[in-house]
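Sorry, I am new here, but would you mind making up a protein's amino acid sequence and the tokens describing how it folds?
***
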Amino acid sequence: MSTPSALLKVMSDAARKAARGLNRDFGELAELQVSRKGAADFVSAADIKAEQSLFESLTKARPGYGFLGEERGMVEGTDKTHTWIVDPLDGTTNFLHAIPHFAINIALQREGAVVAAVTYNPVSNELFWAEKGKGAFVNDRRLRVAVRQRLDESVLATGIPFLGHGQHARFLKELHQVSQRVAGVRRFGAAALDLAWVAAGRMDGFWERDLSPWDLAAGLLLVTEAGGKVTTAEGGDDILAAGSVCAANLDLHPLILERLRAAA
């Protein structure tokens, strides 16, 4: 068991503090039968409140670090070598529909490389965390990617493009190429947790396109530190800039990429 560093403690404390508000709001939302606009407004307020809590906690602990958040965009810091990359609520649509599968995502980028990650699911109280070179964990348990080597034994996660987002035709081609060769494809609606679950060996692999840096930054370190491989959906290295991802163990990763290329 690795002991979390002072840096990881800062990140996990910030996540747990922001989660208290999200849990309260989630409980209320589950009770409310609200109008469409009312529900969406409620969730965006929860989102903004959670990001404000994270911003305050992280900025207080590490003054000067830059901050890239889903709600406020980029806030430049005096320390140009460090940037927090934060999604206060990944899985907003799940949250909106009272589906208990969403997460707070915090990554720290140092000179362009992600060096620390926290993905926290407040409902299950699972805190996934990793530091570069030190392994990946959930709460106090070490994570390893799954060991399956064949697609026909594997269950993969993905994201499905929705109204006004993504490339629907391309996704259907990819799904056609992948689904006929695997044991199952799942769509849970929170990319941060899809990546954390690949790190935990629950999912054998994950691919998705049209994602943002705050969806991906923490998860790519979790998977890598759990012994897996993460690239863009084309097999490239600049995942945060490309906004696409393919993550799996070392055996399955090239096989999934092959199926995605066949769909191109």
Observations:
- The radius of gyration is 18 Å.
